[in-house]
Amino acid sequence: MIVLFVNDKRRMVEAGPDTPLLWVLRDELKLTGTKYGCGEGLCGSCTVLIDGKAERSCQIPVKDAHGKKITTIEGVPKNHPVKKAWLAEEVSQCGWCQPGQIIQAVSLLSEKPDPTDADIDSAMEGNLCRCGTYQRIRSAIHVAAGSGKGGRQ
């Protein structure tokens, strides 16, 4: 039995120890906000927070998450500054990458509350957006940070 603390709830799961955390979240716990993209940790659509750090859940065997605090997109409150900024800046188009993008942005802002453009670009570079909303993503992160650098142009 593997114990996970997902979105502030203790969850016990029976899964093979090498099963990717992504599939445990989606299939066992029915938290489908975390998306499958590439399965190789290259696109960022499966990003979750593990003990506060952004990680690619498709690359984490569930045994390595045992006893750890996991936050998925469902665990980020609706009134979180990043979610509010995402709406204000109209970031989403197709929406596939957005859960991973938002989680990565939450992680960035917890480490750097007032990031520069270079900080944002560096932190977000592993999260691909097939709709190309990178300028809106950067703007939304600035808005969420309250830096005054954001806002649609």
CATH-defined topology of the largest domain: Ubiquitin-like (UB roll)
Low-confidence stretches: none
- Could you state the CATH homologous superfamily of the largest domain? Beta-grasp domain
Strand content range: 5-15%
| Oligomer type | single chain
Tally of contiguous helical segments: 6
Count structural domains.
Answer: 2
State the major sheet.
5 strands, mixed
Distance between the termini: 51 Å
What spatial order of strands do you see in the largest sheet?
Answer: 2-1-5-3-4
Radius of gyration: 15 Å
Could you say which overall geometry the principal axes of the C-alpha atoms support?
elongated
CATH class of the largest domain: Alpha Beta
**How many strands in all?**
5
Q: What letter string, H or E per element, gives the SSE order? A: EEHEEHEHHHH
Helix/strand class: alpha+beta
CATH architecture of the largest domain: Roll
* Rounded average pLDDT: 95
Helix coverage percent of residues? Answer: 25-40%
Question: How is this fold's topology laid out?
Answer:
Blueprint: E1 2-6, E2 9-13, H1 21-28, E3 47-50, E4 53-56, H2 62-65, E5 69-71, H3 81-88, H4 98-111, H5 117-124, H6 134-145
Parallel strand pairs: 1-5
Antiparallel strand pairs: 1-2, 3-4, 3-5
Helix pairs in contact: 3-6, 4-5
Can you put this structure into words, describing what you see?
This protein is an alpha+beta fold. The chain has 2 domains: 2-75, Roll (Ubiquitin-like (UB roll)), CATH 3.10.20.30; 81-145, DNA polymerase, domain 1 (Orthogonal Bundle), CATH 1.10.150.120. Helix content is 35%, strand content 14%. The protein is built from 6 helices and 5 strands. It has helices at residues 21-28, 62-65, 81-88, 98-111, 117-124, 134-145; strands at 2-6, 9-13, 47-50, 53-56, 69-71. A 5-stranded mixed sheet has the order 2-1-5-3-4, with helices on both faces. A hairpin with a 2-residue loop joins strand 1 (2-6) and strand 2. Helix 3 crosses helix 6 (134-145) and helix 4 (98-111) packs across helix 5 (117-124). The termini are far apart. The relative contact order is 0.16.
